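FORM 7B: Structural annotation worksheet

SECTION A. Query
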Amino acid sequence: MADGGLGKRSRAWLRRHRVSLRLSLRVTIAALLSLALAQILKVPLPLWSVLTAVIVTQMSVGRSLKATVDYLVGTLGGAVYGGAVAVLVPHSNEVGLLTVLALCVAPLALIAAVKPSLSVAPITAIIVLLVPTMTHASPLASALDRVIEVALGGVTGFVVSFLLLPSSAYALALEAAAGTLDQMARAAADLLAGATQGLDVDALHRIQDGIGDGLVQLGAISSEAERERAARLVTGPDTASLLRTLLRLRHDLVMIGRAAGRPMPEALRPRLQSPLAQLASAVADHLYASGAALLARREPPPLSTVEMALDAYAAELAALRREGLTRSLSDEDVEGVFALGFGLEQLRQEFTDLEWCIAQWR
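SECTION B. Predicted structure
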């Protein structure tokens, strides 16, 4: 029994961390392969090739592509600039060397501060300048060596990322979007269930915690997925429309959360409690089903159930208005009730857009 439980936990851990384990394997293979190639080609500093291969081997192919391009561009720029300064500016003594070092580092450090993707440029310039003082090679030879070493490591890392257990950012974007929809489903159910009695600030924060982080993660993965599409490594719909729809859903939940922060007026609560509970269940079920459909790349779930629940709530609210039960409410109560209704109607539109997005990914 104990062995069986340990086996289940081990398999569960492996499933949860399968992407990280694949990355670990890719990084290890990239490091070993770059070192072997560097030794075969007899490059002066195999360390630089190995470090580059490790740095550019990323979680997804799209991220590896960006890291490789950024690293190669930064290295080439740093090597060319550092080599030019070292050749053109005399530095036969310590003062001259300090002057040349300042000329190499200052402008490249400014460029790296403005554009962090080129942060390797000043490091490369320093190596190009200082390595010749230790190896007695010329600055131009040092610059060329650095470019060759980095190119070897960069290409090795990218090829390993592309060929060995590749993780497509496109697939990771679907997983992230489905996970965010699950978070939204739980939040919507809790917000709508608590709207009649009202929710305090701590409860609202607890309910919506994590959705923002999930969307930030999805945004980063979507950028990587678009790089894969631009490089024709994958084909399919763009991820921007899906990200925009989820962002709008997030805004709607924030709006509903603000309305739920105030208890529903006593005069309306008995009549709206039941349709609101049915709506909470329908909205949560639809979001869960949408996430599952997106992940499985199948038809989106039908909107009929959630639309009927929205219509039922709207009809009951309209009946309360016709009966004059809203006339005696305070301005704050009226504002809260209709803010909730507006947020729910916005959900209807977002669900239509979400249905279209899911259909595009089939």
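SECTION C. Observations
The chain has two domains: 17-163, 169-360. The CA atoms of residues 222 and 239 lie 6 Å apart.

SECTION D. Sign-off
Analyst initials: ____
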